[in-house]
């Protein structure tokens, strides 16, 4: 896992080894650390981005920056980045609040078929009301990030209400939920009691569909529900239903082990290739899949070696040429 300084274990080991042996070349560092040359080179790129190494005359092409100087500079940059992110978060929260307040102050029916909800409690209250009136089935995608205890606590009473009335539900969640013990306890109960649960590497949207007549789309930011909307417009509801049906066919049932690939690319590998093809960075792909940056980089190393590629562009081109992903995935 990355450290709090965003320095993964390989990069940390390479940096410490270079401090001890400033003139060691890549091959020597790789042998000493039991890593591949590619891993060492990627670590050097990461260290360069963090200004912990600088161009030099060593065989690696880099020289380690004095630890105290490099770490102090890196901490200063991270503090500035944290302040920037906090400002973005506050701006986003203010914008969502303004949007919800503006729509909430309009007379009901101003936007036909659309109901705006402000705040997390309002969202879950409305979901519970719609679930109480549910007659056939509920379908849900997401959330599009880790299944938090807050969401579990809000969802369980709804599921229990559906169970009492014999109404089934189907849910598609992130693959990352499989590695979360507390989430798995709830999901196993839900699978056995209420309906089916399947998983995918990432999800496009968080939505809850009630009787294919109401769709609830929570608005979240930094794993906090800011509000949401409820839509009853038939064309929009049908579009969400079709999206769910398509993803349900692709998803893996929670009760199944992840399928053996027998030499083929895994679903996770195919998915990361598609995300890269769409221009996502490693960090963006990691956030969308709710996995660590190290996991994404490990996939990158594995796929690069498998295809014999020398760049991310070449990797995408070779994956398309061999049919591992489709050209349409570039869109």
TrEMBL record:
Residues 258-323 form the HTH luxR-type domain. This is Helix-turn-helix transcriptional regulator. Coiled coil: none annotated. SMART domains: HTH_LUXR. InterPro entries: Sig_transdc_resp-reg_C-effctor, TrmB-like, Tscrpt_reg_LuxR_C, WH-like_DNA-bd_sf.
């Amino acid at each position: 896992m990355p450290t709090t300084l965003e320095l993964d274990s390989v990069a940390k080991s390479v940096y410490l080894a270079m401090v001890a042996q400033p003139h060691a070349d890549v091959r020597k560092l790789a042998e000493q650390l039991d890593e591949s040359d590619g891993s060492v080179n990627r670590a050097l790129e990461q260290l360069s981005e963090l200004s912990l190494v600088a161009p030099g005359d060593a065989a690696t092409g880099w020289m380690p920056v004095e630890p105290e100087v490099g770490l102090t500079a890196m901490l200063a940059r991270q503090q500035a980045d944290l302040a920037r992110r906090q400002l973005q978060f506050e701006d986003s929260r203010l914008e969502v609040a303004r949007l919800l307040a503006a729509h909430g102050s309009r007379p009901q029916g101003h936007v036909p078929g659309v109901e705006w909800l402000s705040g997390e409690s309002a969202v879950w209250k409305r979901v519970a009301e719609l679930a109480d009136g549910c007659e056939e089935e509920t379908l849900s995608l997401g959330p599009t990030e880790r299944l938090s205890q807050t969401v579990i606590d809000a969802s369980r009473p709804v599921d229990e209400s559906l169970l009492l009335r014999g109404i089934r539900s189907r849910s598609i969640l992130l693959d990352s939920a499989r590695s979360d013990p507390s989430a798995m306890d709830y999901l196993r109960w839900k699978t056995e009691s209420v309906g089916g649960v399947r998983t995918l590497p990432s999800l496009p949207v968080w939505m809850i569909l009630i009787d294919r007549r109401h769709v609830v789309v929570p608005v979240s930011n930094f794993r906090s529900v800011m509000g949401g909307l409820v839509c009853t417009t038939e064309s929009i509801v049908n579009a969400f239903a079709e999206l769910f049906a398509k993803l349900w066919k692709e998803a893996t049932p929670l009760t199944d082990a992840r399928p053996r690939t027998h030499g083929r690319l895994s679903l996770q590998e195919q998915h990361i290739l598609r995300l890269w093809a769409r221009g996502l960075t490693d960090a963006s792909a990691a956030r969308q899949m709710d996995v660590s940056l190290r996991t994404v980089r490990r996939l990158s190393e594995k796929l690069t070696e498998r295809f014999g590629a020398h760049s991310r562009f070449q990797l995408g081109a070779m994956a398309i040429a061999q049919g591992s992903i489709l050209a349409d995935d570039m869109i």
